[in-house]
Amino acid sequence: MFENELNSEYYKKYVCDYLDKHVIILGKKINKVICILTFLLALVNLILTLIPAVSIHPILNILKTSTYNPIFFMLISSFLFVLNEETKEKKYKTIELILLVLSSIYIILILLSCSGIPILSGWGDLYQDSGLFLVIFIMFYINMGLILKKKFLLGQILGLSNFILGYTGFLFYSPGNTPTISLALNYLLFIVTLSIIFVNIRPKHGLTRIFYLKTTGSVFARSTIIVIPIFLIIGIFIIYGNTTLTSLDNKGSIVAGVTVLLLILILVSSTRKFTESDIFGEITHQQLCENKKFFEEIITEMDDGVIVTDKDDIVIYLNDYFDRYKIRYDTLLHYDIKTLTPYYEQLENEFIQMKKIKKSTFIDSITVNQNEKEIYLSGWCTPRFENNEYIGSIIALVDMTFEKEKESSLKQSIKDKNIMLAEVHHRVKNNLQIINSLISLKSRKIEDQYTLDIIKEIENRIKSMGLIHEQLYQQETFSTIDIQKYVKSLTSQIKNSFMGENIKFE
Is there a contact between 247 and 180 (Cβ–Cβ < 8 Å)? Predict the structure, then answer.
């Protein structure tokens, strides 16, 4: 999981954002100064080669012999100076290619001289280690091509290899006589310094990126990597000062070079681990802060009220919802919830019940006056637990005013409709009564008994219908009627309609 996170685009983007721009700018300035000084030193050496040795001061003579093949070092320092600008302008790209071509021509001339063709006469006789210098020059040239091809990691590894070779050569020749000191200066002033620039020319990429971050590990590594070679040189010369040796032997210088390489690799590996830990800690912290901010914004801006208490019923959080009701945040935070008036008085039973049963309890209704208007709230009291131990509660309140008003309006509407329907039933019953009375008046003029019986049956049916409507408008609901009461009334009416006709009812 860690490796997946390490290789994730988010991690790479975060590392780029975490680069210390001030350190990068400072590093580029140092690179520029070193390139200029190296170029000038090689140029001075080239000029001094035109002056006879007998006419030169001994110190200048050391300087004269401290640079072998100054033209090549002038080409490399110029190339690194242009590359250090890190620009996409076409003229700079053209200059870089020209310098690369000139360097390749010079390498070819050196190779031809080493093969016996006297193009650069005396190449192999001018100084010791000409073969090693040839290898280093070729490695410099390859390094130039790798950087132009944006193979920064390979270029840095090759630059580090040249640095170790130059550092080892410097240690090997430093304690000697004038010629060897000149050779040591050549290793130090050109090969070591230019190798350092090759390693640091692209600080945002490859191995060196971890030394340009804002993390604690990166800051420590920047200080340490400079101190390691210096202290090792001092230690070696202290040892040399207590011996009768005139120079370090091959074994000692190689051991010193390998030691520096191992220390640098250990430092890079350790710094990488510490930096990864720092960055992932920062990423985690940032994500936690973002998540906290995200959820706080949700809770703060939501249309529901949220109150959080601890195990002692002290309010530790409430959102901005309560500002609407003139309740200030700072007047309740860290106070007992019982001071939350008029809320607590209306939810006290639910709150106590929640603590007792250790389960969420429903808050049916809380009424609050706002601008002379009643606001209705409802919600839940929810306990909070940690390791099965009560640590507080969360009270969520929802504004139910609209629903309450809608419910009240609906009830009023139903009441009005019930009144209207009762009136309809009452009118229908009255109309049926009128119809029945008219039929009864007409029946008095009918003498035929058969017809009178039919009219009587019609009257009874109309009365039974009217009785149903009378029962409906006298009740609160219109969906049912009291059948027992209805049958008694209907029987009584039928009985009254046959009174005087010698009919006996049982």
Answer: yes
Which residue is listed with tokens 């685009």? 9
Closest CA to 305 of 292, 331, 291, 323: 323
For CA atoms 368, 372, 374, 379, give the dihedral sign: negative
How would you label 264-282 residue by residue, b for 16+ Cβ within 10 Å and e otherwise?
beebbeebbebbbebbeee
484-491 contact pairs (CB < 8 A, 24+): 490/463, 490/464
Q: 341-366 burial string, b = 16+ CB within 10 Å, else e?
A: eebbebbeebbeebbeeeeebebeeb
Q: Which two tokens stand for residue 30?
A: 């140092």
Distance of CA 253 to the CA centre of its chain: 50
Instruction: Give CA–CA dist 462/466, Å, rounded.
Output: 6
Residue 422 has pLDDT above 80, yes or no: no
Q: Predicted confidence band at 164 (pLDDT cuts at 50, 70, 90)?
A: confident
What are the tens digits of pLDDT across the range 273-300?
887 787 778 778 888 888 888 887 877 7
378 bridge partner residues: 398
Residue with tokens 């002038």: 74
- Do you know the residue count of the chain? 506
pLDDT at residue 389 greater than cutoff 70: yes
Q: And the tokens for 245?
A: 């040796």
Tell me the sheet residues that pair with 390: 385
Could you tell me if residue 212 is left (phi over 0), alpha (psi between -120 and 50 degrees) or otherwise beta? alpha
Q: Is the pLDDT of residue 127 over 50?
A: no
Res 237 pLDDT > 50: yes
Cβ atoms of 172 and 142 closer than 8 Å: no
Write down the pLDDT at residue 51. Answer: 66
- The pair phi, psi for residue 213, each rounded to 5°, is -100, 170
Instruction: Give the separation between CA 132 and CA 403, rounded to whole angstroms.
Output: 91
Q: What pLDDT is attached to residue 251?
A: 67
State pLDDT tens for residues 394-409.
Answer: 888 888 877 887 888 8
Most confident listed range (154-163, 314-323, 485-494): 154-163
Q: Are the CB atoms for 200 and 260 separated by under 8 Å?
A: no
Alpha-carbon dihedral sign for residues 63, 64, 65, 66:
positive
Which residues contact residue 443 at a Cβ distance below 8 angstroms, ignoring those fewer than 6 apart?
452, 455, 456, 459
The set of long-range contacts for 385-393, using a CB threshold of 8 Å and a minimum separation of 24, is 385/358, 390/311, 390/355, 390/358, 391/310, 391/311, 392/308, 392/309, 392/310, 392/311, 392/316, 393/308, 393/309, 393/313, 393/351, 393/354, 393/355
Which amino acid makes up residue 335? Answer: Y
CB-based contacts of 483, cutoff 8 Å, min separation 6 = none
368: left (phi over 0), alpha (psi -120 to 50) or beta: beta
Q: Is 376 helix (H, G, I), strand (E, B) or coil?
A: strand
